[in-house]
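Re: export button greyed out
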Amino acid sequence: MADKEVKLMKGNEVIAYAAIRYGCDGYFGYPITPQSEVMETLMELKPWETTGMVVLQAESEIASVNMLYGGAATGKRVMTSSSSPGVSLMSEGMSYLAGAELPCLIVNCQRGGPGLGTIQPSQGDYFQACKGGAHGDFHLIVLAPNSVQEMHDFVALAFDLAFKYRNPAMILADGAIGQMMEKVTLAPQRPRKTDAEIEAECKSWAIYGKPADRARNVVTSLELRSEEMEKINLRLQAKYRAMEENEVRYEAVECDDADYVIVAFGSSARICSATVELARAEGLKVGLLRPVTLYPFPKKPIAELAKRGVKGFLSAELNAGQMVEDVRLAVNGLVPVEHYGRQGGSLFTPDEVYRALKDKIINRG
Amino acid sequence: MCEVELKKENIVYAKSSLMLDNVMHYCPGCSHGTVHKLIAEIVEEMGLQSKTIGVSPVGCAVFAYNYIDVDWAEAAHGRACAVATGIKRLHPNKMVFTYQGDGDLSAIGTCETIHAAARGENIAVVYINNAIYGMTGGQMAPTTLLGMKTATTPYGRDPRLNGYPYKIADMLAHLDGVCYITRQSVHTPANVRKCKKAIRKAFENAMAGKGFSMVEVVSTCNSGWKLSPVQANEWLEQNMLPFYPLGDVKDI
Ligand SMILES: Cc1ncc(C[n+]2csc(CCOP(=O)(O)OP(=O)(O)O)c2C)c(N)n1
Ligand code: SF4
Ligand SMILES: [Mg+2]
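Workaround output, generated via the alternate export path:
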């Protein structure tokens, strides 16, 4: 067996490597800090000379998400990446991608907002990513990596899920995960799918020129007849229910005997795992539940913990309190659920979260 | 009654086999229908059905995909050139064209249009300029002529209030990525024939990888203009053509 290929890399760089090695067909993007290394790395690696992957710098995120729409409509594996303000510009496109049921990958390396905000890390786009973030009833599949290795692994996972459900998928990272360097084991190079494979796989919907043996395909989100449009909406909702049934992913750290559980994702989960160690060293039974899929959200495991006797939950997020709403819905009033957050690009420390856990949950009157 | 057997060589006109039988939603007299017919004929004559991918706009032509028997993507309002770029970059050997109105292409989609042209994307753009937003009920477009009455310029377009119309074809012609820009119309049979040649050339350019081509079709919107089809054709000749003169703007 060949040696594992282990490299020291930034989270953003590894997205580029993972995309090429997965056999991604195309990337369309527009520079924005803190994620520009994705396209810079791709341009440096020149995958069009090796795997044949297309890489194109667009004139805006509006253009890149619509190039993504065009590319995805052909059944190929295409992606874009951006950071918060750029993702806002993509929101119209995301709604169209979801409406036309086009599989693709969008990476959001979040920074602090609102507005132009800061280029420092944030998790302020949870609502945008998980609650639609644009007009109409739809969901993206949302994955939250907490390490450079997961940045790598989730590229393949996101594409696989996107194609399984014909739905856009998002990797919701942040400036901390994108910029930090860690060791990562790279996957071996996979060949890109051939046109014949794609045509066989996506014959029922993709557009690549109508062959004689099938009717024309039309990629659209338009249906003016309300009774037909309602059927489409119901079909989409059934798809989202299937995702909720089958695709929930999370990591539970020391939750089995926990009296208190911190819920945190991405970089804040990284910080909170140290909080768990601090608490356990003092004899407090604290666990960490880390949602890996933010949509579909791990409602059931959280509800089960609440039923099992966990006395309180702290949702620790780098925002003013967004995921906490989903934790509260899951807990459904059984026990207290509080939020602790920092904003504007500031991170919290493990100590800070520990103090918040004590003040807001453990020692509350 | 006698039955006349038509010999193939005697048939001077037949509906293109790529023109589907769905009932058209276009108003009688509207230029959209004529241009659709030309596209179907050209794709058929070039033998390109299995290689053609159309991108329809938001505008009256949003349903173009119901009428021409090729694969289609329906783009968000104004984004057709970006969508076409994504398709063409991944399928460089296919014939990718957009079909867009003046609101779609030269208002909300100006940025995507200019940059696709500047990059020299090997796509063909069919640009239906009827100087109005047909689909939404006849509001002013960037192309609306001075003095022209629309739903949002009920007293006529006044440059002090509404600014001036502009000719995006002339602007695009300056870009290095552009190989062919022409302005045509379909208001007389002779013009229909010329327009067909122009669209064919644009499609050939897209296949040959010569760069960005655009055929502007100076068109009628008799409903939006509140004129009969015949009056609309006359109005086009008297008012539109002086401002949007027909002919090639660039051909290299
Ligand atoms: C983002 C967005 N804004 C506005 C609209 C409403 N809208 C639909 S068609 C249209 C104008 C179309 O005009 P044009 O492109 O000239 O096409 P025509 O109908 O005249 O052929 C507008 C403003 C929309 N669908 N999407
Ligand atoms: S509204 Fe105007 S552009 Fe639309 S179909 Fe009718 S005549 Fe044509
Ligand atoms: Mg118009």
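The radius of gyration of chain A is 21 Å. The button fix ships in the next patch.
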